[in-house]
Amino acid sequence: MNARSMQYQNNRSKIHPKKFSLWVAMGSLCMMFAAMTSFYLVRQASGNWLQFELPSAFYTSTAIIVLSSITLHVSYFLFKKGNTLGYRMLMLASLILGVLFVYFQLVGWDQMNQDGIYLDGNASGATIIIITGLHAAHVLGGIGALLLANLHAFTLPHKVTETRKLRFEMTYTYWHFVDILWIYLLVFFMMTL
Question: What domains are defined for the chain?
Answer without folding.
Answer: 18-192 (1.20.120.80)
